[in-house]
Amino acid sequence: MHDEPGHGHHEHHDASSPEVRVEALEDLLVERGLADPERIDATIRRFEHDIGPMIGARLVAEAWADAGLRQRLLTDADAVVADMDIRGAEIEHIEVKANGPGVHNVVVCTLCSCYPWALLGLPPNWYKSPEYRARVVREPRAVLVEMGLELDPGTEVRIWDSSSETRFLVLPERPAGTEGWPAERLAELVTRDSMIGVAHAADPGGQ
Q1: pLDDT, tens only, 134-178
Q2: Residues 2, 147: contact at Cβ < 8 Å?
Q3: For this structure, is 109 an active site residue?
């Protein structure tokens, strides 16, 4: 279900859909020499994987490194976000749900695609797909396995349905072997998918 080669969704949109209109506008700009498709793709990748997710990643890493901040984040994420001067789209009210031994949280928006843009950047295509939105509620374990995450049988899976009033962010478990790491280094282990709950944080052995 990933939006990577070989795992993409094949969605059909009518001519009035935003996706079709944006693609038509991009094609027109490229055709007239007003836009470079490689630069457009690079900008999208930057917002999907670097600028956006790194804001949330730094927040998670600081919570890993500071037990007091972690507790504040779980109790009143809005206050923490305000104190850290994090601003942007769709974070008017944020709730953070922590993974831990025996508990794994996953975020979805079953009605549309509500998503904390200011913390995670652009939402991935699979998050917005009808398939993910419907199936992750009914059969979360199967969906997670398809996305590369197999949980222990005894782990409780909790699904959090985002809405226009509340967006959710998963606080993934801190990987073992990272004791003493500074927050800057820890942030490199936090991925967008781990903050949605469809993946664990990255293996520190690869750092």
Answers
A1: 999 999 999 999 999 999 999 999 999 999 899 999 999 999 999
A2: yes
A3: yes
